[in-house]
Amino acid sequence: MSAVDETNVEKGRVADKALGENALFGMGNPLLDISAVVDKDFLDKYGLKPNDQILAEDKHKAMFDEIAKKSKVEYHAGGSTQNSVKIAQWMIQKPHKVATFFGCIGSDRFGEILKQKAEEAHVDAHYYQQTDEPTGTCAACITGDNRSLVANLAAANCYDKEKHLDLESNWDLVEKARVYYIAEAATFAREQGFEETGDIAAIARWAQALPKVNQRRPRTVVFTQGRDDTVATVGEKVTMFPVLDIDQNDIVDTNGAGDAFVGGFLSELVQERPLEECIRAGHYAANVIIRRAGCTFPEKPNFR
């Protein structure tokens, strides 16, 4: 083996291809996460429970501006898919803007903050802006150790494919990507009407066997199950991967665990690493996020 070959081999396999910008593409509902400490009177005013997750009704619309006026407010780029690509970018670190994100926001103050937060996360966000609906938001009303989440999708539901995705400059970014993430597998399964069994391995085998245009490689299906084993199927083989152990007292917030797993998984997948490494990264990212409030993370990962 030549010296050049030796530098390109890591643990018996060819080193990963160099990553460039826009290699990972995500598309979904962008939300601006707004977190602030509130009191019981605030919860009562808007009919909220201390530990709950709901979609906003008309009576909650004024709440988002009110919570934003609290003395200590934190803003983060949120929404399930945006969380996942944000975490993937965090896991990768550099180069910046490996992750691309498309979604719809409003032409308002919250939209400008969301742009800023996506930029701070080094995600290359290209939002479709419209004026009919305000930017989607998710308020985290914190009382002690409890978090009451209220999501207002608003503009997130207003994406216009013809006015955004079909633009040549945007479609160029789609074609530039190696890996795409758009929908959760569980949502896909519901849409397909496959809910007659609680056997997660059977669902994974069913999903793996669905018709596939590209027959050159088998479909890979991965399902997470919270604290239970992660299930993965490639071809006819179903493999169970145990999650990382964690003391229950160290768990702060499990709401972002699924998004974090996807983000960690994608960070390895886009570098064409083996399935086992992708799942290990997913477990690592989820383990980090559930120790923190909201879908947040430290400055740098400690994965390797």
Structure overview:
This protein is 31% helix and 25% strand. The chain starts with a helix and ends in a 15-residue tail after the last helix. Mean pLDDT is 87; it is low at 1-16. The strands form four sheets. It has a five-stranded mixed beta sheet with strand order 5-10-9-4-6. Strands 8-7-3-11 form a four-stranded parallel beta sheet, sandwiched between helices. The chain has helices at residues 3-7, 40-45, 63-68, 80-92, 109-120, 168-176, 185-191, 200-208, 257-269, 275-289; strands at 9-10, 13-14, 24-27, 31-37, 52-55, 73-78, 99-106, 124-130, 137-143, 146-152, 179-181, 220-225, 228-234, 237-241.
Q: Taking strands numbered 1, 2, ... along the chain, how are they ordered across the largest sheet?
A: 5-10-9-4-6
**Structure class:** alpha/beta
Chain-averaged pLDDT: 87
Number of strands: 14
Query: What does the main sheet amount to?
Result: 5 strands, mixed
Oligomeric organization of the protein chains: single chain
Task: Tell me, briefly, the overall form.
Answer: globular
Radius of gyration: 20 Å
- Percentage of β-strand residues: 15-25%
Helix content: 25-40%
What's the end-to-end separation, in Å? 26 Å
Order of helices and strands: HEEEEHEHEHEHEEEHEHHEEEHH
Query: Which spans of ≥5 residues are poorly predicted at pLDDT below 50?
Result: 1-16
